[in-house]
Specification:
The protein is α+β, with helices and mostly antiparallel strands. The protein contains twelve helices and ten strands.
Length: 407
């Protein structure tokens, strides 16, 4: 009963301290709360990143290797006309699939930027000419309709990205609608679900897809590939297959032994890991900044409590003269400090949880908010604040009653 009474008195005293040192207290609690919120957000960022990377790799089935044209070397005295080699052809996809056993699918892609129009609305998009296997290899789910098949090879049919569908019509286009591409009408046969940004930093919701033959005949006079997706079998050694592909394309394109390769190969799992590494770096940066903010908040609370101890020397002396023990005095100021810290930590929890929910909603991630993470952040914050309040509490407990009363 006495303990509850002491805690109640300490909480009232903490509120009085907060009102007496209003601005200093609010600033200290805000910094402490930001540190707690940062710890929660850093944990959510890390967990969401790991979950997203695992989902990407799992959705691929086997490994996925991306082949793209290499950058041209600079030549002194000659203005560079193009940025990449022009040598990757659709026949390369057939050759690789036939001659390398561990390649399950080879999907050629020709790409360029263009404009799609529907009635009075237009959208600047990335046009991809590809084969029906593209949706399966890239694990692109459809929101409406279907992806094109082999019977649509030279037909004017088109599959829209989610953002393109919404830009061309407020309610979104649906299968059967007609859009204009290159001055010709194309029938919409499907609309993709939202995909987000790919490994190259491109918004895949602003893409449209047509059959490769239609792209060759109606868009490009001579078809050179922009990308080539190679899906490997589940038991394939991606590093070994990558070397085989590099060697085969080197010979097929007539490159000399000492010449640089005209194509670049990238393992999709490696690219996902690189993206994860970048995001983990951001997580570490947020964690360090959060730790510094929490440290500033802890120092602020400790300084504030030391100031309170000095201002209340007469009260401490009077309590000691009336029979309060040093332990009673220490507990009083320790509880006051923890009460002040608790206000800032709880505010930080609210900010951190709100920020985590907003982050997950924006990125459409499946990582749930971990209650253990919130508990860990609160425990770390309160423990650090308790250490900060320990010195003022010991200082108050060691005051001599006579000296305190004379002050």
């Amino acid at each position: 009963m006495r303990t509850l009474w002491a805690i109640r008195v300490a909480l009232r005293a903490a509120w009085a301290v907060l009102r007496q040192n209003r601005w200093r207290s609010l600033l200290t609690l805000a910094i402490c709360g930001l540190g707690t919120a940062g710890v929660i957000l850093a944990g959510v960022l890390g967990k969401s990143n790991v979950a997203q990377m695992q989902e990407r790799i799992r959705s691929l089935g086997g490994g996925l290797v991306v082949v793209s044209p290499n950058k041209l070397p600079t030549s002194p005295g000659r203005q560079r006309q193009i940025e990449h080699f022009i040598s990757l052809e659709p026949e390369d996809a057939t050759t690789l699939k036939d001659r390398i056993p561990h390649i399950q699918s080879a999907v050629p892609v020709g790409a360029r930027n263009t404009t799609v129009r529907h009635e009075r609305n237009t959208s600047r998009v990335r046009l991809l000419g590809t084969t029906p296997e593209y949706a399966r290899v890239r694990s692109f789910p459809l929101a409406q309709g279907r992806f094109f098949n082999t019977t649509d090879a030279a037909e004017r049919v088109i599959v829209l990205g989610h953002a393109v569908s919404r830009e061309l019509a407020p309610e979104g286009l649906k299968p059967g609608d007609i859009v204009a591409l290159g001055g010709q009408p194309y029938e919409v046969i499907g609309v993709l679900q939202p995909q987000g940004v790919n490994f190259a930093g491109e918004d895949e919701d602003h893409q449209v897809f047509i059959p490769l033959d239609a792209y060759r005949q109606r868009i490009a006079n001579r078809l050179w590939l922009s990308l080539l997706y190679l899906q490997l079998t589940p038991d394939a050694d991606s590093a070994h297959v990558t070397r085989q592909v590099q060697s085969l394309l080197h010979d097929r394109h007539g490159r000399w032994r000492d010449q640089m390769d005209d194509v670049v190969l990238r393992d999709f799992a490696e690219l996902s890991a690189q993206q994860s590494g970048l995001l983990l770096t951001a997580v570490w940066a947020v964690s360090i900044i959060s730790g510094l903010l929490l440290l500033l908040g802890v120092v602020g609370i400790g300084t504030l409590m030391l100031l309170v101890v000095r201002q209340r020397r007469a009260e401490i002396g009077l309590r000691r003269a009336l029979g309060a023990t040093p332990t009673d005095i220490a507990v009083q100021f320790l509880v006051e400090g923890l009460a002040l810290s608790g206000v800032g930590v709880m505010a930080g929890v609210l900010v951190g949880v709100g920020g985590a929910v907003g982050f997950q909603a924006m990125r459409s991630t499946n990582a749930d908010l971990d209650l253990r993470l919130i508990g860990l952040a609160v425990s770390i914050s309160l423990f650090a604040c308790a250490l900060a309040c320990l010195l003022p509490a010991i200082t108050a407990a060691r005051m001599e009653p006579a000296a305190a009363l004379r002050s």
